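User: Predict the complex with AHM.
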Amino acid sequence: MLTLKPLRRFITLGQFIIERQTDFPYAKGELSRLLRDIGIAAKLVNREVNKAGLADILGDMGETNVQGEDQKKLDVYANEQFINALRSGGECLAVASEENEDLIEIESPVSQNAKYVVCIDPLDGSSNIDVNVSIGTIFSIYRRKNDRTGSTTIEDFMIKGSEQVAAGYVIYGSSTMLVYTTGKGVNGFTLDPSIGEFCLSHPDMKIPEEGLLYSINEGNYMHFPNGVKKYIKYCQEEDKATNRPYSSRYIGSLVADFHRNMIKGGIYIYPSTGKSPNGKLRLLYEANPLAFIAEQAGGKASNGFDRILDVQPESLHQRVPLFIGSNKMVEKAEELMRTFSA
Ligand code: AHM
Ligand code: MG
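Assistant: Here is the predicted structure with AHM placed in the model:
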């Protein structure tokens, strides 16, 4: 008699979201649908990202000079896809995007009862597109305060990161992954191109407490605060007990640097520099969502002194210094910041 081996069950993103729906405080399926909409847009963006290098030979960018124009178009394309998905999904009231100066209010008949606002960097690290290096999407979801009615304003976005209800990123890399949290741990899904589904591949992700990698653009060294200079020296010093020197790894694509450090253990730093006193990265759609994920995975995210998730936003495109990754490494960097850069 033929005995069938039990099939290993694979779980798609859609199934997982539905199974976990009861974890959410409001459990009416709205947040699940919002996450599903983001997953769908991510697949469309992934399809175009994978074709980026073909733009020249296929000529699908028309008569424009593809160099430079091409990567810009992919940014715009990603922005449009995410906004369209959120608009037609009906669960989102307004979007703050890196690509748009002002917030985008969603006025659609299906969004009358929407309760969520979304912050998004549709295609981060886009200068890496034309050299075929990983790029990403980062998103953050808030529930609008109950007592507010009428049109959405900037006020609806001036909420501390600690109040995010969900956050995630998509990495378009050697494979494409979607990683997200709703405050109950972090789960990662890899896109299986043969079936076009994100499948659970990294359940309950954890950042190692300690790591051996540090990621920072050392070209800006001269302009770093003293605390950061001391931390870099600390990473480079020889010490067998703590496995130093650490290795330096910097892709220049935040999602990719963060993702690698989350899996292997490490720290990513974009500090203030002489030129930009608040660093380069944006609080609402870069630092906050990754900080939420880092904490949910057992790591830490700081501006060098304080928890990122406690920073009060004051504008949509506000910048913030970012120290993020393995708990012990961020703690050490904070200690040196307090001692040498307070
Ligand atoms: P972007 O939003 O314009 O793409 O800029 C953000 C990117 C991050 O992905 C990356 O970590 C950082 O900028 C790299 O900046 P730098 O080239 O100054 O090191
Ligand atoms: Mg960005």
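Residues 98, 121, 124-126, 217, 252-254, 257, 280 surround AHM (ligand 1) (CB under 6 Å).
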